[in-house]
Write a structure and sequence with these properties.
The complex is a heterodimer of chains A (204) and B (309).
Chain A: H1 2-13, H2 18-35, H3 43-72, H4 80-103, H5 106-115, H6 117-134, H7 138-153, H8 156-170, H9 176-203
Chain B: H1 16-34, H2 62-67, H3 80-84, E1 94-99, E2 105-108, H4 109-113, E3 119-126, E4 131-141, H5 142-149, E5 157-162, E6 182-186, H6 187-191, E7 196-201, E8 204-205, E9 215-217, E10 230-236, H7 243-247, E11 271-274, E12 284-285, H8 293-296
Parallel strand pairs in B: 1-10, 4-11
Antiparallel strand pairs in B: 1-2, 3-4, 4-7, 5-6, 5-10, 7-8, 7-9, 11-12
Classes of the chains: A mainly alpha (204), B alpha+beta (309).
The complex binds protoporphyrin IX containing FE (HEM).
């Protein structure tokens, strides 16, 4: 527990704003590499895929914070807003790369959203992130009140698995990698079920 | 990882092949001069002869073609084949030719290549994932080989099978598809002069990641029809199973002709990303039959291409 206390103590002293800067670095690096030939012969796809994957990592990191606190005593909650907003910006960039660099043809974009189930699901996940990103500030938290704010942000429990399912559908054939991610997401959600059930049992 | 890709080529640089050919032409010129001949810019290496079926479009440089591959036996990433395909040992390669043929049997690469004239076929290559390249294959018409084995009158289809060697192909340890990879053509498609068996690339023996030592190339169909590292060719009277069709029949049909109007559930096929154009490159409209309609459209006369996709 000395380790956990040490980390918690350090976290208390650290500000969370540098995360935004740190989070921008890989994206800038990615586009720079893409423009200068460092991403191979199909840079658009590499950028699109990396942003989707890193966005999913961030969403998973955001989901992991509560279980880490509950089961390991790690208090990282002060970073959660930054992680969530970064996830939003990564997925927004993922979407923009798709629109501007990949599909390019505006008339086709709408058809793709409607017709291609993996895009439909990705888009649904993205749209759910919008209100969460917009309300990720103290003013909105005060305005909505903690109960409504928390209720709204429970959309995470739906949008993250949708993002993971989108990944499963993106790949051809049966590949393990996206299934591992989906399993991790489901596990992180399942961890939230247990204590509340115990609490209910205790109340009965 | 990203560093692996580094080279000193610029994406706007479209002349590497010219530079590459110049070297060869100089060498050929020296050879020709030595014999006092007046040979034109003949190719060295495999010595493939030019073909009227080649496109005049500029081929992608060799490193595009060898570094960006779909060959799931070596992994599902585009760069996995370049990394892993060296494990494949193509020495003593044999191709089993069987089914409705007069002379079934096992063919070595020497048997297959004996007496054939290798041609350079510069073809457009269109992947179902909506990207494309231009590739200078070296090979010979499949119909030449079929003529040598004698196709029996009942034969209507040609089935192909890729090698399955778990020790040399790390990708087959995961069940991405049902191994071995199999493909097929209707006999008239197989006999079309555009359909070749390729054994070379840029006038050199074909690299492992591109399907060594012998692969099919059917330029008017999506790339996955052009099966790699062939170990069996069977003439059949029934439409043979094909790997991606078995994996997901709604997405991948037996014919899989390049067709911008037949939509795919996953990727719009109306346009394509030209590999090597960089991140700001415009998409290019995709052509029916990948632009080979003049040679192949009549194969499908009267067929509903949306139904037989
Ligand atoms: C929460 C939302 C989302 C998540 C977590 C997500 C994640 C991912 C991941 C992990 C990949 C695959 C990366 C790889 O192969 O390494 C991917 C691919 C892709 N995503 Fe998303 N994505 C999301 C939303 C969207 C949206 C809104 C769109 C567009 C409307 C989109 C379009 C795509 C496309 C086009 C691909 C590549 C498909 C291909 O190469 O064929 N995604 N995404």
């Amino acid at each position: 527990m000395a380790l956990v206390d040490g980390i918690n103590g350090a976290v208390k002293r650290l500000p969370s704003w540098p995360l935004y800067l740190l989070g921008a670095v890989p994206v800038v690096w990615l586009f720079w590499q893409g423009l200068t030939g460092g991403l191979g012969v199909d840079p658009t796809k590499v950028i699109e895929h990396k942003l989707g994957l890193w966005g999913l990592w961030l969403l998973i990191a955001g989901l992991a914070i509560t279980p880490l606190q509950r089961f390991a005593g790690l208090r990282l909650i002060k970073f959660r807003r930054a992680i969530g907003l970064l996830a939003f910006f990564y997925i927004l960039t993922h979407l923009l790369v798709w629109l501007v660099l990949d599909v390019q043809i505006p008339a086709q974009i709408w058809a793709d959203i409607l017709k291609r189930p993996y895009i439909t699901i990705g888009m649904a996940a993205f749209l759910m992130m919008l209100p969460l990103a917009i309300t990720s500030n103290n003013w909105s938290l005060r305005k909505l009140g903690p109960v409504r704010w928390r209720g709204l942000h429970k959309l995470t429990y739906l949008l993250v698995p949708l993002g993971a399912v989108h990944f499963v559908m993106v790949v051809k054939g049966w590949q393990m990698e996206p299934l591992y991610y989906l399993a991790v997401v489901i596990a992180l959600l399942a961890l939230r079920l247990r204590p509340s059930r115990r609490r209910r049992a205790a109340a009965a | 990882m990203a560093g692996r890709w580094k080279n000193d080529l610029n994406w706007s640089d479209t002349t590497p092949k010219a530079a590459w050919l110049n070297r060869r032409q100089i060498m050929a010129g020296i050879g020709a001069a030595a014999f006092g001949g007046i040979a034109g810019p003949a190719l060295a290496g495999l010595g493939a002869v030019k073909s009227d079926f080649s496109t005049v479009e500029e081929p992608n440089p060799l490193d595009h073609i060898t570094s960006y591959c779909n060959y799931y036996e070596f992994g599902t990433g585009k760069e996995d084949p370049a990394r892993n395909a060296h494990m494949l040992n193509t020495d003593g390669w044999q191709v089993e030719i069987d089914g409705l043929v007069d002379k079934p049997g096992t063919w070595t690469m020497d048997d297959i290549l004996a007496g054939t004239t290798l041609e350079e076929r510069i073809y457009r290559f269109r992947c179902v994932e909506a990207w494309s390249m231009v590739i200078p294959w070296v090979g010979f018409e499949l119909s030449d080989l079929l003529a040598r084995v004698g196709v029996q009158s009942g034969a209507k289809y040609v089935a192909f099978e890729t090698a399955l060697r778990p020790d040399e192909m790390p990708g087959v340890r995961s069940p991405v598809i049902d191994w071995p990879y199999v493909e097929g053509l209707r006999l008239d498609e197989a006999m079309n002069p555009l359909t070749i068996l390729a054994t070379g690339l840029y006038d050199e023996p074909i690299p492992n990641q591109n399907g060594a030592p012998i692969r099919l190339v059917v330029p008017w169909k999506y790339g996955f029809k052009s099966i790699k590292s062939i170990v069996r060719i069977s003439l059949t009277d029934k439409e043979p199973p094909t790997s991606w069709n078995k994996t997901n029949g709604r997405e991948y049909g037996f014919y899989s002709n390049v067709n911008p109007t037949v939509d795919h559930p996953r990727w719009s096929q109306a346009s394509e990303r030209v590999i090597g154009g960089g991140i700001l490159a415009k998409r290019k409209p995709t052509l029916l039959f990948n632009g080979y309609g003049e040679q192949v459209a009549d194969l499908y006369d009267g067929m509903d291409l949306a139904k037989f996709y």
